[in-house]
Amino acid sequence: MRFSKVYIPYKGYYSTPFCRWQGSMANENSIALGAKTARRWLLSSDYDPTMFDYFYLGITIAQHHLFYSHTWAAAMMVDGQKDLPALMVNQACTTSTTCIYLAATNIELGVYNNAFTLMTDRCSNGPHTIWPNPLGPGGEVESENWMMDNFNKDPWAGLKMVQTAENVAREIGATKEECDAITLRRYEQYLDALKDDRAFQKRYMFPAEVRVGKKKTKMIEEDEGIIPSTAEGLANLKPVEPGGVHSYGAQTHPADGNCGFIVTTRDRARELSKDPNVEIQIVSYGYSRVQKGFMAKAPVPAAEMALKNAGLKVSDLKAVKTHSPFVINDIYMSKKMGMDVNWMNNYGNSMIYGHPQGPTAGRLIVELLEEVVMLGGGYGLWAGCAAGDNGAAMVFKVTC
């Protein structure tokens, strides 16, 4: 789909730091933490939380009160001052993009003018669920560890996520040495985001306030749990799967965090922009689902669709950000689309700073927008895969 009427105000977005699982956000209900953080960010940015016509909550890992998560989060964000309609969205790793797409579609169609998308997840302390099994032996229940069981088996493909990545690696003949080299490059790119007292991250990152006791809280200002990478260290790590190319260093890790976007009309975006000289347009969207058990391929057809819908070529892009839970995602995409794999994902990506699922794509898009602004404007592409061999992509145009 191509859009012509949908914009994001410059600085009308944020992402919290991401915390490695079982870290500082491990005990927070991500619905409440996301809503409270969004409200704090809106107020600190001099935005009225009640100005929105519709609210989207992106969440993939169940939390207490999930049934009411969207309406509850919307009510908390506006502090009960408005009856704000809401919708919950779950598309695994591409949830953020889907929330933005749904908001953009309704604005393009004139259904409403101003939406807020909040994406939040907590991989830590994932729920352990019990399902009735009345026809089983003795009626014994079936149990499910919400996150780990689903990471380790797609009920349709019958594979662990890492095995789907290895399928793609075998198909294109990728080596562990190639994977290690690009992993190190991604880590070095992330270190660029930390230079000059985290100057790049401070362009968009907003702290999360978490409880450390009944009456005490603390602010999470920076990413937690980043593991340093070296060429020697990566070389010494063994592949996770026998005969594979992905070590634990060459894949992402579960994390916690949230992010938010204002999605609106051009006129309203101009009013809300923190710099009247910067304009951000949502240009197009692409989607895909690839062959069973080859998830790492999914970003390519989605990206090709988004570029075609935008009337663009790879050479027209100023920057590309991807959700690559496994490094083979970027290697495959670079080969198939003619991109320099070392050019993609400046300032790091989710393979390095973690993957809370719901907000992962959102943080990447925030970083993409800020990078294109720093480059003086132009087109930026985000693309990523999602559980079940899905893919999504979105093109943005920044005018400075």
Q: What can you tell me about this protein's structure?
A:
This protein has 400 residues and is an alpha+beta fold. The chain has a domain of 162 residues: Peroxisomal Thiolase, Chain A, domain 1 (3-Layer(aba) Sandwich). It is 33% helix and 22% strand. The protein contains 13 helices and 15 strands. Helix 2 links the parallel strand 4 and strand 5.
Can you give keywords for this protein?
400 residues, alpha+beta, Peroxisomal Thiolase, Chain A, domain 1, 6-stranded mixed sheet, 5-stranded mixed sheet, globular
Low-confidence stretches: none
Biggest β-sheet description: 6 strands, mixed
Globally, the shape reads globular
**End-to-end distance:** 24 Å
CATH architecture of the domain at 161-200 and 278-399: 3-Layer(aba) Sandwich
CATH third-level topology of the domain at 161-200 and 278-399 = Peroxisomal Thiolase, Chain A, domain 1
- Counting DSSP E segments of at least 2 residues, the number of strands comes to 15
CATH top level assignment of the domain at 161-200 and 278-399: Alpha Beta
- The topology string of helices and strands comes to EEEHEHEHEEEHHHHEEHEHEHEHHHEE
Write down the Rg.
20 Å
- Tell me what portion of residues adopts beta-strand conformation: 15-25%
* Number of helical regions: 13
CATH superfamily of the domain at 161-200 and 278-399: Thiolase/Chalcone synthase
Share of helix, binned: 25-40%
Q: What structural class should be given to the helix and strand makeup?
A: alpha+beta
Mean pLDDT metric: 97
